[in-house]
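Batch 3, record 17
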Amino acid sequence: MESNQKHNWKTKLHEIIYEADTPSGKLFDVLLLFFILISIVLVMLESVSSIDNKYHDFLYFCEWIVTILFSIEFILRIITVKKPFKYLFSFFGVIDFLSTIPMYLTFFFGGAQALVTLRALRLLRVFRILKLARYLGASNQLKDSIIASRVKILVFLFAVMVSSVVFGTIMYLVEGEANGFTNIPKSVYWCIVTLTTVGFGDIAPQTPLGQFITTIIMILGYGIIAVPTGIVSAEYAKSSSKSNESNNNNESYSTEQKLHLNSQCCINCLNTTHQDGAEYCHNCGHKMHHD
Amino acid sequence: MESNQKHNWKTKLHEIIYEADTPSGKLFDVLLLFFILISIVLVMLESVSSIDNKYHDFLYFCEWIVTILFSIEFILRIITVKKPFKYLFSFFGVIDFLSTIPMYLTFFFGGAQALVTLRALRLLRVFRILKLARYLGASNQLKDSIIASRVKILVFLFAVMVSSVVFGTIMYLVEGEANGFTNIPKSVYWCIVTLTTVGFGDIAPQTPLGQFITTIIMILGYGIIAVPTGIVSAEYAKSSSKSNESNNNNESYSTEQKLHLNSQCCINCLNTTHQDGAEYCHNCGHKMHHD
Amino acid sequence: MESNQKHNWKTKLHEIIYEADTPSGKLFDVLLLFFILISIVLVMLESVSSIDNKYHDFLYFCEWIVTILFSIEFILRIITVKKPFKYLFSFFGVIDFLSTIPMYLTFFFGGAQALVTLRALRLLRVFRILKLARYLGASNQLKDSIIASRVKILVFLFAVMVSSVVFGTIMYLVEGEANGFTNIPKSVYWCIVTLTTVGFGDIAPQTPLGQFITTIIMILGYGIIAVPTGIVSAEYAKSSSKSNESNNNNESYSTEQKLHLNSQCCINCLNTTHQDGAEYCHNCGHKMHHD
Amino acid sequence: MESNQKHNWKTKLHEIIYEADTPSGKLFDVLLLFFILISIVLVMLESVSSIDNKYHDFLYFCEWIVTILFSIEFILRIITVKKPFKYLFSFFGVIDFLSTIPMYLTFFFGGAQALVTLRALRLLRVFRILKLARYLGASNQLKDSIIASRVKILVFLFAVMVSSVVFGTIMYLVEGEANGFTNIPKSVYWCIVTLTTVGFGDIAPQTPLGQFITTIIMILGYGIIAVPTGIVSAEYAKSSSKSNESNNNNESYSTEQKLHLNSQCCINCLNTTHQDGAEYCHNCGHKMHHD
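Prediction for the assembled complex:
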């Protein structure tokens, strides 16, 4: 009986930490988001020397509070999952670990300043809050249209790289080291800066011929920008019209939508795509827990 | 009878000020637009020291004329509305107040120079002229497609922010304070400048590794620009094809169009979406007034 | 009979100069294009002091040849048209006049150097060559989709102007004259530079608050860029799918296409949209002339 | 019999070098891609003086290895093709020659350093790897939509050029040589930099009037960017919906797809669009060879 109670306690915690269906689960997600943002702001403020000089002790204190809270969250995540190693070596497991460890390392080793930046990756965990129902539909459709146009985008990036190398080498020859094009890699870097219409202006062509070639590069870049936009546009329109169609034709679509709105997470395999009334995980067959 | 006459006078003024259906209502809107533009030009010219030194008295005089005219408009708006407090605490009520008060404040307190800029917000009132029929259809469709893709745009902005923080922190580590990346907030700012392809060039990567990472950021930004364009494109195409469909299928569409073309404004609740022949406000039940 | 012969001579010349159907008409258009380009190159080279110093006499000589040729063309255009004044006060009539007169003015007055640039407008005449059949279909569809989205584009430009003025004033307050934001017009200019993602970098925010506001402006600009693209995209897709539909459904479409391919130009009213076998101008009823 | 054996040997080599169907053919393509990338990296590193000073001998040695390998490839390509001259004067034949010859020239002539950059063109050969099935479908659809919108893109580029010349000349007059607009070609160059939203900032308007005109140019550029995007978007959507249609309507589509996935290359005319079971080249009638 005690074991069952303990099991219930673990199950409830799992529901709070991994899911966003219950009020306490939502509260946990909001609190986590809050502390993640606080942590990001702390990292940023520490880097501003004028602020760090004044409030160093306060920032350091806050940093430790956030670190301890993240440590507790990390431990709870490991405890409540049935297969801790699967979690630990998952994308978010690694990020959770990396966002907790730096402060302990700085405590023990002092100079591990560089690792502090690993906490920036902590922001990636923010995407977890996207499990909240209404965001999911949108990001899924986006992901689908990007995956659908994956190969085309690669071909496009490939074309950008090839033209950058070709034009970069030409500009290196035409402008030369005197005008800032000191070597081909730098020339290629400048070429990408120009093709993407960023145009820092730290390096700029000085010779008439160089400026003429730059004109060609810019108009090329201007034309090229149309290509990925057109691709994603078309793919997105396709996928959204497809979802519309199924919406109109059969009622099964609304059921599918509901599936996505469900944020149940299997305690055993961390799979998150469960039907509303599912008693067992459709992936590993483990018993699902509901309130 | 006198009360009725007074009521008629108020109703007529309400029609002139709040609506754009009658010739006098249109004239009022055009005059208002003219004085708003004059006011904006005055604010701008005052800020140019060479012009302000020469024509200070003239500009100051014009400023007072505009202010008095706006004051009269403000008072008339309050008088002709049945629920003045509802107007006062509405978006345009606040802006009308803020665009009138600064000159009086400068008169009484002298140094309230900063408040003068609040008059720039006056330009927002220009959108009122959009009530003119033909502009409304277009902006409504635009607003609809932006609202429809709201969640997706938020997810996209979220992605921009996350990658800016991650890359900003990396660039801060790679380039360091010597090359202008003095702290993480500034680094993140630079990262957004690069991702959005603005590229001021006040800060630019100097190390080969920094330039390599910049290349990745730029191509990422180039790819990312396709996403919101694709979304709005698709949503807009959807909504416009939808309106086309309803246009073709049933005649009720043209009726709906006519509704929008009507610029009647309820004297009681300021609601502006009334049917052409409406005798009572569909929102508060107040009697509508026609010429 | 002589009068008829003269009439024939005028008609033939009209066909050569104003139309591109006959071989001689095409040759005239190509020659005109060639001399326009030559003229543009001459204007450009004259402005390069190192080249002008060396070859001034040669450039001046060429300039006179081009001017005389354009003068002859201008006179022939006036002679062959039935209503010379209509031509003279048309868009191209004014441009033809402005592109001929500067050299004569420099000859008589010497210092009328500024007028030379009017010849740049001569390039606008290049669009005439677009009468050549295959270019017309494309540019017409483009023009249609731009006209269809005219009001929406105006609303969009209006939004850009309003946000530029608001943000420009805020930046003027935040950054101040010390950081290059010397007055509001300059601040607004900088704001448009940033919103359109051009980003010269001649003026750049220096204060942390200014950089934060800049971030908002840039992301706004990034989002705004999606709007006109989406509009034109959707309108273009609509118009092209419409033309496809009519192409599939009825054969009358191909007839319409042929109409556009015809470059006949009425000698009386200069109208250029004539059906292939048209005997009389559908606009003014004047007799058409065919070979 | 010996001749037949020799023929088989040549046929097999042809299959390995020109096709990507067999494991050895794929291996050849991957190895070629690897050496091309190595060669590009070598060219780049040589241009970095700090690296070249240190590792010059090693880089020179690697360069010779790559050159010899490319020479062998070039010779094998000539041998295995039935019509060597057709290959030699084809696009890739010229590139293969140009990417092999520079090192030999530097060996014999010493100072032919400039020709080394011709090796950059070697990167164009990378596109050959695109023959690998899954990339081809995507790039073909892209190519089709670009070809379909070719005329429209030309009209668009033409518009960009015309407005650049007009505005460039105006800016040259307004800003003058004192503010960096030293001549019209440079002014036109600056105008294209601005229109394409690159904005280097090496030249920037200083006078209020110049900045006002720049504002117009930028907003124009902002509006213009929508046009090519809209065109490619619409064309791409059209072509992809077309291919979808044929996919749904008849099964012959999947057959067509398979055709593209086939990377057979005729030994006689180098044509690469063969059906899977083709016994003879559909272009020249030559016997095809299969494993």
